[in-house]
Specification:
Length: 660
């Protein structure tokens, strides 16, 4: 084995070794720096520039950030911070501005003098944006003058020029204007709603900083939203719980925890801010941030929060004699139900699991967060005994439900296999393959299930028909879910378990595909399935295993020729059909078939249009914003009617006789 490896290396020649200089590596491999070339990566370009302004805010030099989407495709990000230095860099012997914008791993985040804390650790952010821009214009307001430099594809085309003196009403700051290079990035447009959600989150986490998003692509009057939250995380928790019945006021704390020198560096402090509140649902809403960066996989800061909340509740319940001597303590899952919690730490030396910063690893953070939460929550429980009792009673209900769910699980495990049970509401037609090719279609009804079973490729496609609409799991506890036949069949077919028992290692199919009818009932069933999977199997979505099939709505027949018409975003059926018929010389002679259900297609048609990997279209389900997804599911599928009514009245077309 060693000899073979050495021989393979020896076959390379000097000509095969290529050195990528400057920002060329970013243009050739944008996925390493901004996550890809798609729409998400395009938006990430803006986030990278805004993150620099946020770092200025954390340093106390900036309190207003303005993001503008111009009607010519350019984007500008302006702040009133100190401005990027423009003087000559003592090592590179060119303007520091040019060093920052053209060199990877260059910036003020590598020294302790410029920033106490910052989200950027590698110094690749704004230079990567420069590399992926057809044009970038940097305007710096500092030292009494406006300075400017222009770049194309990351290469400076002008020197750093002193343009003019600053006016009396002008502040110091930085404005970065760029045009994405769509010869490298995929052709996409910036989405106002996506940006607004991100900047709202930033404004919550970065207290007392104003972020303005302006869209000049809307004519004649530009669209503009401004985010500013005096209350920080306290306001964020109230926002997340605004459609829920809460049990008490928000528990909030902010502290600086000091750490002495460890022998390798100077002493430092971690700023910790936490806010949490219980509501009457069984859902858990947790968000964790490190240096304003959302860490979706949590980490030591979130672990510290969870353990301290559980510990405080157990101690108070014992002291108040609400937990008897022979009763066991509440578990972590008991104290998580109904909790909306946010923790944000600011650390001068954060350690993340990877460059994507999805999980915080610093071990000392867990103890620091636990200390802050324990002190604040214990004080709150002692000063507010009525609220404390409501919290304990909520945990007691959760513990009883957990015990009922445990018994239900044991009953399921000890009984006959759900896959073999003749009492299943819809039998699983399994496939012979496993691994990356294997996929399962979750199909609505026996009729569609019959067509799908006949039309599928039995080697790699499994079919699971479900009868009717499954339980709305947004309003049901775990024991009720496990009593539902459709949900039991789904859990058993996927093999992963749910909730705290979930493990992706046991997933039986690489792709889980929801295939429902293209009508209102089909959309409702799809939403019910998405609700269940989001709440109980969220890693399945996060790891990219969940898809939605796209069956056709119409079949158009003209003579011997035919075509299928699929749904298009933002278009109702009449508009879709009218658009398709315009392509025909004599639309009146075109035979139009409307597929009301998958069962109306014969197996060959279903295979050709919806199941054949060579011709089908699948929509992959992703979670870009966990907090927003949590809010939407809670609003649309929860028990509160008024917010759902307002949403439907605002977004639905031709709503009449609304009865929810």
């Amino acid at each position: 084995m060693v000899d073979r490896e050495l021989q393979t290396v020896g076959q390379q020649t000097e000509d095969q070794i290529k050195v990528l200089k400057g920002l060329e590596a970013v243009r050739q491999r944008p996925g390493m720096y901004v996550g890809g070339r798609d729409s998400r990566a395009l938006h990430h370009l803006i986030y990278e520039v805004v993150d620099n302004s946020i770092d200025e805010a954390l340093a106390g030099r900036c309190d207003h950030i303005i993001v503008t989407l111009h009607n010519n495709g350019y984007v500008s990000v302006s702040d009133n911070g100190g401005g990027i230095p423009v003087g000559t860099h003592k090592e590179e012997h060119i303007s520091t501005l040019q060093v920052v914008l053209t060199n990877l791993h260059a910036g003020g985040k590598f020294s302790t003098g410029a920033y106490k804390v910052s989200g950027g650790l590698h110094g690749v952010g704004v230079s990567a944006v420069n590399a992926l821009s057809a044009e970038m214009i940097a305007r710096i307001y500092r030292e009494g003058h406006l300075w400017q430099q222009i770049y194309h594809a990351g290469i400076p085309t002008t020197p750093v020029e002193k343009v003019r003196p600053l006016n009396q009403d002008e502040h110091t700051g930085t404005t970065i204007t760029f045009l994405p290079d769509f010869t490298v990035m995929e052709e996409n447009e910036f989405n106002f709603a996506t940006l607004a959600q991100r900047f709202q989150e930033m404004a919550f986490v970065t207290r007392k900083v104003t972020i303005t998003l302006r869209d000049e692509r809307i004519e004649p009057i530009a669209r503009e939203m401004t985010f500013y939250f005096e209350g920080g995380l306290r306001s964020y928790v109230r926002y997340l719980n605004r459609n829920r019945t809460v049990l008490h006021s928000v528990v909030y704390a902010e502290r600086d925890v000091d750490f002495p020198s460890d022998g390798r560096g100077s002493a430092y402090a971690i700023n910790i801010e936490v806010a949490f509140q219980y509501n009457d649902t069984a859902n858990v809403s947790e968000l964790a941030f490190a240096n304003t960066i959302n860490t979706p996989d949590g980490g030591t800061h979130l672990t510290g929060l969870r353990s301290s909340v559980t510990g405080v509740i157990n101690r108070w319940a014992r002291k108040a004699n609400l937990l008897k001597e022979k009763e066991s303590n509440f578990s972590g899952s008991d104290t998580l139900e109904g909790l909306t919690a946010i923790v944000s730490i600011k650390h001068p030396h954060p350690s993340f699991e990877s460059q994507t910063k999805v999980k915080l690893l610093n071990p000392e953070v867990q103890g620091a967060v636990s200390q802050v939460v324990t002190e604040a929550f214990s004080e709150y429980m002692d000063l507010n005994p009525r609220d404390a009792k409501r919290i304990v009673e909520k945990c007691m209900i959760s513990m009883r439900a957990r015990e009922a769910a445990r018994k239900a699980r044991e009953l399921v495990r000890s009984g006959p296999s759900l896959l073999e049970s003749s009492t299943l509401p819809g039998k699983l037609a399994d496939c012979s393959e496993r691994g990356e090719n294997a996929e399962v279609f979750i199909v609505e009804g026996d009729s569609a299930g019959g067509s799908a079973k006949q039309g599928r490729d039995r080697h790699f496609q499994a079919i699971l028909p479900l009868r009717g609409k499954i339980l709305n799991t947004e309003r049901a506890r775990l024991d009720k879910m496990l009593d539902n036949n459709e949900i039991k069949a789904l859990i058993s077919a996927l093999g992963t378990g749910i909730s705290e028992d979930f493990t992706l290692d046991n997933l039986r199919y690489h792709r889980v595909i929801i295939m429902t009818d293209a009508d209102v009932d089909g959309s409702h069933i799809r939403t019910l399935l998405l609700t269940f999977l989001f709440r109980q199997m969220q890693p399945l979505i996060q790891q990219g295993h969940l898809y939605i099939a796209q069956p056709p709505i119409f079949r158009l027949q003209s003579g011997k020729d035919h075509e299928y018409i699929y749904n298009e975003a933002g278009m109702v059926e009449n508009e879709l059909l009218a658009k398709a018929l315009k392509r025909y010389k004599d639309p009146d002679k075109v035979k139009v078939s409307r597929y009301k259900g998958l069962g109306e297609m014969n197996p060959d048609q279903l295979w050709d249009t919806t199941m054949n990997p060579q011709t089908r279209t699948l929509l992959q389900v992703t979670i870009d914003d966990a907090a927003e997804a949590d809010r939407i599911f809670d609003m649309l599928m929860g028990s509160a009617v008024p917010p759902r009514r307002r949403f439907i009245q605002t977004h639905a077309k031709n709503v009449r006789n609304l009865d929810i």
